Amino acid sequence: MTKLWNKRSSVGPQFLVSIGAGINQMPLIKEAKLLGFSVIGVDINPAAPGFLHCDIRIIESIENFNEIFVKLKEFVVAGEIMGVLSKSYGTAIKCAAYLAERFNCTLMPSGRVDDFLHKERMKDIFLQNGIASPRFQIVTDRKKLRFLDEFSFPLIAKPAFGHAKKGVKLISDRKDLEEHVTSIPPGPVLIEEYIDGDEIIAAGLIHRGSFHVVELTDKVLSPPPYFVDLMHLAPSRHFSLAREVSKLGQKIADAFGIITSPLIMEIKVHPEKGLSLIEAVPEFGGEFIPDFVIPKRTGYNFIAETIKAVTGKEFKLPKAGTKKKNIAVKYITGREGIFSSFNPITSTGIHGLLFYRIFKDVGSPINPPETNHDRIGVVIAEGKTMREAVDACDCAIEKLSIKIRPAK
Fold first, then answer.
1. Which of the four, 59, 169, 205, 282, has the lowest number of CB atoms within 10 Å?
2. What is the pLDDT of residue 321?
3. Which of 288, 343, 327, 302 is nearest to 213 (CA)?
4. Residue 73 CB: number of other CB atoms within 10 A?
């Protein structure tokens, strides 16, 4: 077993380790620098843009946990590693938790990360701890689906391990189910009961084992059979449920033994059955919620305050009732074809526009939205009302004038 790295008092620099140095890690790296930390970036890509803001670069795959640990010990001669974080997901979170343990930093037990990544284990823990979640079964033999007779259609099918809505589909009947499970890549498939109702995202911070709600947003999805995120709206029209969401987050913190970590929960709100937890992940989450939506709407710097929390610095707890603005995040999708052009715009020409990004390169193939990776870009806008924020997004998308030509 790898020995823990003993911290020592030092007048040298204090380090934060960023697992990943890509474009999505930039907000984490920049906030750490503003807080006075020296940043050690870890990424397999030597040209990762976040490296420009790092004091030390470690070019290594984030899958090689122990190799990173060895290199960190070589680099850190004076000073302390005060914390390890990632703004990414999956393996990056597992790597961060492993290194945090090795350096005696506060985070979550590394042995529990897989309980989140493997949906069957996650769902079993929900069940064991009285956390309301849709009923499910795992299909490993695609030729044996009879045990699903107790479920009523429609159902949700999704990979037992995955992200970005890849392989997630609403199943209307048994024939549709059989066709779906035989058409996707090999591996276990999670079959889940479909619960009607609104879907919300709950972003929160666990500190010293206590969960605190940071923000609730409404999620707008593409029509069935696929469930692609098209919009996120803040504040949620269900913000009055913040107290119930907080209790749900506390159950997650207790069940998974989380000490200090951001936490994202996907929750269905049923008019009669109440809250039902779809998934939970110990991460900041995507969809620009931590780096744009939360600070712009509430004034609370979620990323900076989490850095303070994991490094032992004095930090501010979120005030869940804060409401300053309405924020809309709207994704751009398109028909099948080739992305041929778009018109760059500036925020000064559109009232309320905060940010936009085009994900696809000109010349890239475009597909109708079946997964989140099919989205062309995003615009984020604010308004005094939610209607104003959405209208500003629509105006920006129109001015972008995205062109898609037919594929040959």
1. 59
2. 59
3. 302
4. 13
Q: What is the pLDDT of residues 23-70, one digit of tens each?
A: 999 999 999 999 999 999 999 999 999 999 999 999 999 999 999 999
Strand ranges inside 184-306, DSSP E = 189-193, 198-207, 210-221, 229-234, 261-270, 274-281
What would the two tokens of residue 89 be?
Answer: 């997901």
Low-confidence ranges of the chain (pLDDT < 70): 1-11, 77-79, 141-150, 162-167, 184-185, 320-323
Q: Report whether 300 contacts 319 (CB < 8 A).
A: yes
279 within a domain of the structure (yes/no): yes
The pLDDT, as a whole number, for residue 180 is 77
> Could you tell me if 285 and 214 are in contact, meaning their C-beta atoms sit under 8 angstroms apart?
no
The pLDDT of residue 171 is 86
Run of H or E including 249: helix 242-256
The residues facing 56 across adjacent strands are: 40
Residue 38 belongs to some domain of the structure: yes
Domain total of the chain = 4
Are 87 and 62 contacting, i.e. CB atoms less than 8 angstroms apart?
A: no
The pLDDT tens digits of the residues spanning 185-219 come to 677 888 888 888 899 999 999 999 999 999 999 99
User: Would residue 138 be called left, alpha or beta, if left means φ above 0 and alpha means ψ between -120 and 50 degrees?
Assistant: beta
231, 287: one domain: yes
Confirm whether 141 is domain-assigned: yes
The C-alpha atoms of residue 8 and residue 6 are separated, in whole angstroms, by: 6
Q: Of 263, 207, 199, which is closest to residue 237 (Cα–Cα)?
A: 199
Q: Which amino acid is at 229?
A: D
277 token code pair: 């937890």
Question: What's residue 254's pLDDT?
Answer: 96
Task: Return the DSSP state at 111.
Answer: G
Can you give the pLDDT at residue 110? 92
- What range defines the domain where residue 100 resides? 14-105
Three-state secondary structure call for residue 107: coil
What DSSP assignment string belongs to 137-172? EEE--TT--GGGGGS-SSEEEEESS--TTTT-EEE-
Residues 185 and 225 in one domain: no
CATH number at residue 309: 3.30.470.20
Q: In what order do the strands lie in the sheet with 80-85?
A: 56-59, 38-43, 14-19, 80-85
- Is the same domain home to 230 and 314? yes
- Provide the pLDDT for residue 9: 47
Enter the pTM of the model: 0.90
